[in-house]
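User: I've been trying to design a sequence by hand for this structure and keep getting stuck. Would you show me what you'd pick, starting by listing the structure so we're on the same page?

Assistant: Good idea, let's start from the same input. This is the structure you sent:
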């Protein structure tokens, strides 16, 4: 077998790989409120109780199937979630604690998912077989996410394909026009975590600087946590820019996914006097501009992803060595390591 040829696999990627996925920003779910989402091919609710704890559960009452979301009439009363059809009440554990009449059958309980609130985000863990998570989303150093900004879109793509960008450096050259790309260190894989390190020259074009096309040297450290969460630490030493990009791929209905592109600028670039402006004024605005710029960059990828066919036996070049390693890395996120089995 050719050294750079992938081993034989089936042709369809399971649309719902195991792992942690972002459902919302923490700030979007106030205490004693709940909301509904389509996630991993099912309807779920997120509920923050009056103590601030978050529950993620299937959105349908296990009694007769009424939807518990606020749009369907589900409500919160005395820190209980109340079904709009028969008034069944659920504690924050998911356990039913009150029915219309008589004793509460112990078997009536919402199906819940492991939830983790970290980095200013609400994450939920999905495993097709129901196993508990064996890893957690790492916490980033800073605790203040005031300046972070996101652009969110629903796109037709698969999280394995989108996260593959982290090791597909040749597409940065051709599709995005970067040059002088170098791999600063070998790609590292440690269980569900993958890290890649690159440097390249690229232009920086934002609405603030739209009369000029500046080209600078960027160093990036990419961290991939499962297939749903990636962060990119960005440093441009020449101009003193430091920023962090956030990219989340959260499967929705099996065809589309919610794609988040975020930026958090820590230091303004030394361009046009930007770094002389008050930090509290300029950094939030730059973060929004950089998030929008990231979204513009991703729009080129999205055009390809939306019509892309997964190749189980791609003819890889020697420069695609990390793609081979990435595909092997992905196998752990599917039941029985069958990364390309169609979903049930």
């Amino acid at each position: 077998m050719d050294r750079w040829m992938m081993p034989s696999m089936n042709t369809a990627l399971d649309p719902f790989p195991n792992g942690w996925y972002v459902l919302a920003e923490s700030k979007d779910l106030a205490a004693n409120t709940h909301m509904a989402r389509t996630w991993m091919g099912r309807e779920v609710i997120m509920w923050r109780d009056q103590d601030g704890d978050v529950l993620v559960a299937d959105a349908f009452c296990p009694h007769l199937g009424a939807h518990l979301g606020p749009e369907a009439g589900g409500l919160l009363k005395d820190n209980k979630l109340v079904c709009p059809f028969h008034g069944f009440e659920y504690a924050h554990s998911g356990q039913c604690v009150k029915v219309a009449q008589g004793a509460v059958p112990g078997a009536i309980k919402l199906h819940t998912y492991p939830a983790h609130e970290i980095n200013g985000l609400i994450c939920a863990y999905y495993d097709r077989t129901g196993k508990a998570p064996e890893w957690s989303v790492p916490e980033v150093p800073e605790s203040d996410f005031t300046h972070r900004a996101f652009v969110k879109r629903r796109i037709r793509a698969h999280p394995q394909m989108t996260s593959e960008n982290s090791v597909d450096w040749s597409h940065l050259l051709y599709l995005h026009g970067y040059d002088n790309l170098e791999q600063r260190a070998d790609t590292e894989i440690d269980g569900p975590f993958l890290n890649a390190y690159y440097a390249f020259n690229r232009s920086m074009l934002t609405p603030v600087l739209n009369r000029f096309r500046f080209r600078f040297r960027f160093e990036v450290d990419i961290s991939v946590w499962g297939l749903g969460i990636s962060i990119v630490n960005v440093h441009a030493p020449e101009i003193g820019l430091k920023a962090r990009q956030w990219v989340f791929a959260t499967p929705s209905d099996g065809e589309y996914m919610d794609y988040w592109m975020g930026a958090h600028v820590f230091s303004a670039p030394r361009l046009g006097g930007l770094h002389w402006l008050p930090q509290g004024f300029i950094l939030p605005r730059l973060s929004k501009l950089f998030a929008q710029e990231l979204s513009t960059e991703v729009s080129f990828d999205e055009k390809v992803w939306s019509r892309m066919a997964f190749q189980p036996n791609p003819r890889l070049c020697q420069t695609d060595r990390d793609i081979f390693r990435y595909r092997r890395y992905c196998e752990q996120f599917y039941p029985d390591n069958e990364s390309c089995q169609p979903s049930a």
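That's my pick for every position. To get oriented when you compare it with your attempt: The longest strand covers residues 179-190. The chain has two domains: 29-113, 149-328.
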